[in-house]
Give the backbone structure.
Amino acid sequence: MTGQLTARNLAVAGALTTSEQEKIRADFPILCRTVREGRPLVYLDSGATSQRPRQVLDAERAFLEQHNAAVHRGAHQLAEEATDAYESARARIAAFVGVAPEEVVFTKNATEGINLVAYALSNSSIGKDAIQRFAVQPDDEIVVTEMEHHANLVPWQELCRRTGATLRWYRVTDAGRLDLDSLELSPRTKIVAFTHQSNVMGTVPPVAELVRRAHQVGALTVLDACQSVPHTPVDLAALNVDFAVFSGHKMLGPSGVGVLYGRRELLDALPPFLTGGSMIELVMMESSTYAPSPQRFEAGVPMTSQAVGLGAAVDYLSAVGMDRIAAHERALTGQALAGLSEIDGVRIIGPLDTTDRGGAVSFVLDEVHPHDAGQVLDDLGIAMRVGHHCAWPLHRRFGIVATVRASFALYNTPAEVDALLAGVHEVRRFFRVGA
Amino acid sequence: MKLEQMYQEIILDHYRNPHRQGLREPFDAESYQVNPTCGDEVTLRVALDGDRVSDVSYDAIGCSISQAATSVLTDLVIGRTVAESRSTMDAFVEMVQSRGQVEPDEEVLADAVAFVGVSRYPSRVKCALLGWMAFKDAVGRAAAGDATANGAERSEAP
């Protein structure tokens, strides 16, 4: 059996070997626990949040035990050490996605990063200080896609509501791909915001083409990279997007920290979103001037041990190698797609092969609601997400209210995919489907 | 095994063969409820005859727990007074929110005692209550003579 699994896994060049998988799993204490009635945990919900290796937990603890202080203020030794740790994390995270440290803004999470852009554009649109190049006018258009997470949809709906602009979107095909023919951009298009990888279907849209079209009409691009950065090599500079966001907790890091990338020239010109301490240059009673980016966008004492932890997370991912991780997850995804396709009554929502596709695999079952399926899987120790995964419009587009989703990370194994497939059979047996 | 305690045969029977499904006229008030975490929804109508519940009709999308709970609800409240229905509802809510700590009274809850297992799965409590929240809302509207509010004023289950 093990031999078979190994052979299957190695079918993807560069995939992690069995001993490498074991070594990685040993770094994640939570993967050793049991759930429900003594079932070994099979964690297939990394698309929602990933688990953290000891190295990340240790880095956070070491920072708090040895160096903790408020960063970018104070001249004592701890303040210096804390600031160094914080800025070192920024530099390593920036390098991890191919950009300069000054282009990385720490936010609470990816959602806050998108809201930061939306509100900064809003702030550019009003009053005597309106900044023409960023101003969103009533006749303008903001473009998203039908496969967005609510985090990359609702902030744009709200920006439209505040400015009077119109929201438009690229549609999704029956096969779960982006339909580039479903929308024509226009000179009124100010922003094109899209995901780098669907959190439901795993679909990777044609980023280069979307960026080309957006820039052709002078629109800014915003990339939701939450589901790509943890799973595949990402070079944001090479992708040529204007803004991008990703979250720490989905990439082995702590919760409470996310990243907004902005092209330097844009961040330098953009007005602030949240204002207060740390982000200022000069403050007088009447008015203030603001620090250069990224400080301009980091008001208040920032999350510090979390940023340090995220720095350790990118070190960990880099040490394994993002190419290897991508190959490993591609193998798992291929195995899941093939196995699920063979089960009667299973309908996969999204691409059926691993071309331009990451490791989120969502499906519905004939005669069993996803909630009920998830409950049986949970009873077997398999942690999966059920529901609309914060992509309700996408589910509506497929005429469903919910799906069951498996999402993989570097620490998952072919044996866990087998457990998933066996679990789906058990769901059918439990609810007597096809009996 | 806890799972079989939750998915008792009576629940699966109601799920496969729901009672009094479909939206019917006449009715005094209608309520639309949605569970925003999973997208399940129910539209439920209540018809009153004096202080008695003469009909409950509904259209719902949801899991076995929410569908079966709404089906059982119709058995429990149709033909009863509004006050009796409300006390049944209170007993049901108390049971499913009890984390397994409340021994249900079969005299009051009849088939609904089958949902006692749900109380051990906190994430499923909302499912069991979706139809009941719609019933509570609709009865409240009917008593207030407000039949109109529905989809336009979507309120969420607790």
Residues 125-144 of chain B form the longest helix (20 residues). Chain B touches chain A through 19 residues (CB under 8 Å).
